[in-house]
Amino acid sequence: MLLFAATLLNYLDRQVLSLVSPVLRREFSLSAAQYARLLDAFLLGYTAMQVVAGWVVDRLGARTGLLLAMIWWSLAGASAVAARNPLELGICLCLMGAGEAANWPTAVKAIREWFPPASRAIAVGFFNAGSSAGAVLAPLIVTALTIRFSWRMAFLVCGGLGMLWIVPWKRAYRQPPVDAPALVAQSERRSHLLRDVRAWGVILARFFGDSIWFFYIFWLPDYCSHVLKLSLAAIGAVAWIPFLAAGIGNFAGGWMSGHLVRRQSGVVRSRLLVMGGSAAVMAAGAGIRWVRTESLAIAIISVVVFAYSAWAANVLTLPSDIFPGNQVATITGTAGTLAGLGGMVTMWLTGRVVDHYSYGPVFLGLGCLPLLAFGFSLLSACRRRPGAGSGRTAGPARSAILEHNT
What is the CA radius of gyration of the chain? Predict the structure, then answer.
């Protein structure tokens, strides 16, 4: 429950910026491109820290690691109350992103430490649902605080909530013995993994696919304000709906691939079948560019993020299906770094396109991303020849697409 709460607070804090963006852009006279720079400031900290978060948490332990991360990102988010210009706000957001990056590797480590293998997937699904819960609550809380007080109060209150989480975490969580063998030869395993075409299938799938989620998390309120012409109060009333659909999509995607596995379709093949269907639905979201009515736009966006969450439930599981346990965190962290870089590129391009054209070309581009992501994800079904990536000098990868029936 505390891991669920930490993830909820993680998403509550990161959505403050997007929800106050209509007010913030007016106060600081920001163009879409300048607003995109603030988003990239957050993603810069988030992406850079992904590289080292797992390494740090492995050495400090999940209890201390998540405690320090929560303090870090909560204080950084609350400090935005003192920002006098976009530069100072960007620095606060960058520091907040650096702290938030530790949430997922720490939570997965904690679950691995205390849950048996048969229960881990359920535990991961439960704590990860905190992201959708945070995204649902954020429009209601943040818009109310902004309308009643100011955007600064929204940052202060949401950051302060994280400090309340610290006390029960310190009392409830106890650190198990350190798993020393899991820390051995980390850099060697990473170099071997990056020669594995299956690893690149997961990495590139997330590079293209996660950008869709970043867009809706950070640009949906701005789209509602400038295209659908909704007030801040109206945005708060409807912006939670797509993220409720996303929460349901997490469970639906996991259930569907599990159902296919039980029907002996093969583990990786089952994941890819669900991912393929989800990618097709996400691609249909390109049609949002022609929609101008509030209800239809929110409905289509809800379907798209439902499909994205079904996709995410499976692409996040693929490393544990393909690689041994002592390599899963490495490949997940590396994929997270590339996903963050993809998000930064998408944020920058969105700002430029919206300023010079409109949201129309953005939605067309977003419609192409899931097809690219699914195409690269098929590499995860490759079977490497014996000895590939074993530490000897590796030549070009020679692999064939085969079904995994394990």
Answer: 21
